[in-house]
Amino acid sequence: MGFFDSEIVQQEAKQLFEEYQALVKLGSNYGKFDRDGKKLFIEQMEAMMDRYRIFMKRFELSEDFMAQMTVEQLKTQLNQFGVTPQQMFDQMNFTLERMKAELEKQT
């Protein structure tokens, strides 16, 4: 069975995408959140990024051709912006850490 033939993989991918879309939409109102709302948003983004990192690592470790092609496509797309997948994750972490630091200043 191929990597993408797995119902579990398909469900996780769908769930990650939907949750990411919902968080991005929600994040457009981040400035209007109270302190607890901002803290919760940051925690949810961190948890989602951890799940995404694990999901991508499963792609990288898979010997399935389609999984490997997906990893290469991501690398190619990010390379167009001069970024590697690791740099993308690092930047996301940096942004979340900066958001947490700003939140701490508000107390």
Structure notes:
The protein is mostly helical and 107 residues long. It has one domain (3-105). 79% of the residues lie in helices and 0% in strands. It is built from four helices and no strands. The chain has helices at 7-27, 35-61, 65-79, 85-105. α1 (7-27) runs antiparallel to α2. The chain is elongated.
Short description:
It comes from Aliterella atlantica CENA595. This protein is mostly helical and 107 residues long.
Q: Show unreliable segments.
A: none
Question: Helical proportion?
Answer: over 70%
Order of helices and strands: HHHH
For the CA atoms, what is the radius of gyration? 16 Å
How many structural domains are formed by the residues? 1
InterPro entries: DUF1825
Protein name: DUF1825 domain-containing protein
Pfam family, one: DUF1825
Organism: Aliterella atlantica CENA595
SSE inventory with pairings:
Blueprint: H1 7-27, H2 35-61, H3 65-79, H4 85-105
Helix pairs in contact: 1-2, 2-3, 2-4
Tags for this model:
107 residues; mainly alpha; 4 helices; 0% strand; elongated; DUF1825; DUF1825 domain-containing protein
